[in-house]
Design a protein that fits this description.
Number of strands: 6
Distance between the termini: 20 Å
Number of domains: 2
Helix content: 25-40%
Number of helices: 4
Length: about 100
Protein backbone atom coordinates (compact mmCIF):
# COMPACT_ATOMS: atom_id res chain seq x y z
CA UNK A 1 0.00 0.00 0.00
CA UNK A 2 1.31 3.43 -0.88
CA UNK A 3 0.48 6.66 0.90
CA UNK A 4 1.05 10.03 -0.72
CA UNK A 5 2.26 12.98 1.36
CA UNK A 6 2.84 16.08 -0.71
CA UNK A 7 5.30 15.07 -3.40
CA UNK A 8 6.59 12.05 -1.43
CA UNK A 9 5.25 8.56 -1.75
CA UNK A 10 5.54 6.43 1.41
CA UNK A 11 4.98 2.70 1.65
CA UNK A 12 2.83 1.45 4.51
CA UNK A 13 6.02 0.18 6.24
CA UNK A 14 7.63 3.60 6.05
CA UNK A 15 4.39 5.14 7.27
CA UNK A 16 4.32 2.73 10.24
CA UNK A 17 7.94 3.59 11.05
CA UNK A 18 7.04 7.28 11.24
CA UNK A 19 4.36 6.52 13.83
CA UNK A 20 6.70 4.16 15.69
CA UNK A 21 9.41 6.78 15.95
CA UNK A 22 6.91 9.46 16.97
CA UNK A 23 5.75 7.13 19.76
CA UNK A 24 9.36 6.56 20.83
CA UNK A 25 9.96 10.30 20.95
CA UNK A 26 6.85 10.94 23.03
CA UNK A 27 7.72 7.99 25.30
CA UNK A 28 10.94 9.79 26.23
CA UNK A 29 9.17 13.06 27.07
CA UNK A 30 7.87 12.67 30.63
CA UNK A 31 7.86 16.46 30.87
CA UNK A 32 5.38 16.73 28.00
CA UNK A 33 3.28 13.55 28.08
CA UNK A 34 1.34 12.28 31.13
CA UNK A 35 3.44 9.62 32.90
CA UNK A 36 1.05 6.64 32.37
CA UNK A 37 1.06 7.29 28.60
CA UNK A 38 4.80 7.96 28.62
CA UNK A 39 5.44 4.61 30.33
CA UNK A 40 3.39 2.73 27.73
CA UNK A 41 5.05 4.52 24.82
CA UNK A 42 8.51 3.93 26.28
CA UNK A 43 7.98 0.20 25.57
CA UNK A 44 8.54 1.09 21.91
CA UNK A 45 12.21 1.72 22.69
CA UNK A 46 13.15 -1.90 23.19
CA UNK A 47 10.07 -4.12 23.09
CA UNK A 48 9.06 -3.98 19.44
CA UNK A 49 7.86 -7.28 17.94
CA UNK A 50 10.42 -8.77 15.53
CA UNK A 51 9.84 -8.98 11.80
CA UNK A 52 8.48 -12.29 10.50
CA UNK A 53 11.28 -14.77 9.61
CA UNK A 54 10.13 -14.97 5.97
CA UNK A 55 10.44 -11.19 5.62
CA UNK A 56 13.90 -11.21 7.23
CA UNK A 57 15.02 -14.04 4.91
CA UNK A 58 13.79 -12.19 1.81
CA UNK A 59 15.48 -8.97 2.90
CA UNK A 60 18.85 -10.60 3.62
CA UNK A 61 18.81 -12.69 0.45
CA UNK A 62 17.91 -9.58 -1.56
CA UNK A 63 20.84 -7.65 -0.08
CA UNK A 64 23.34 -10.50 -0.44
CA UNK A 65 22.09 -11.69 -3.81
CA UNK A 66 22.32 -15.32 -2.69
CA UNK A 67 20.31 -17.86 -0.69
CA UNK A 68 21.05 -17.85 3.04
CA UNK A 69 22.32 -21.44 2.84
CA UNK A 70 25.18 -20.33 0.57
CA UNK A 71 26.31 -17.58 2.95
CA UNK A 72 25.58 -18.89 6.44
CA UNK A 73 26.34 -22.23 8.10
CA UNK A 74 23.31 -21.49 10.30
CA UNK A 75 21.17 -18.47 11.08
CA UNK A 76 18.55 -17.89 13.76
CA UNK A 77 15.69 -15.95 12.18
CA UNK A 78 13.11 -17.14 14.70
CA UNK A 79 14.65 -15.59 17.83
CA UNK A 80 16.48 -12.31 17.15
CA UNK A 81 18.75 -10.97 19.89
CA UNK A 82 16.79 -7.73 19.79
CA UNK A 83 14.44 -5.69 17.68
CA UNK A 84 13.59 -2.01 17.52
CA UNK A 85 11.60 0.26 15.28
CA UNK A 86 13.87 0.12 12.24
CA UNK A 87 16.09 -2.91 12.73
CA UNK A 88 16.70 -6.19 14.49
CA UNK A 89 19.79 -8.23 15.36
CA UNK A 90 20.11 -11.91 14.48
CA UNK A 91 22.75 -14.50 15.35
CA UNK A 92 24.39 -16.64 12.70
CA UNK A 93 27.62 -18.31 11.62
CA UNK A 94 29.02 -17.71 8.16
CA UNK A 95 30.11 -20.64 6.00
CA UNK A 96 33.55 -20.43 7.62
CA UNK A 97 31.77 -21.35 10.93
CA UNK A 98 32.68 -18.01 12.51
CA UNK A 99 29.89 -16.71 14.79
CA UNK A 100 28.53 -13.38 13.62
CA UNK A 101 25.76 -10.98 14.62
CA UNK A 102 24.23 -8.65 12.11
CA UNK A 103 21.87 -5.73 12.22
CA UNK A 104 19.06 -5.94 9.68
CA UNK A 105 17.39 -2.66 8.76
Amino acid sequence: MLLFMGTQCLTSRQHALCYMQAGQFLGARGDFVPMPICQKLSLLHDQVPPMPPAQVRASIEGELGAPLEQVFEWINLDKPLGSASISQVCTSACVLAVPVHFNLR
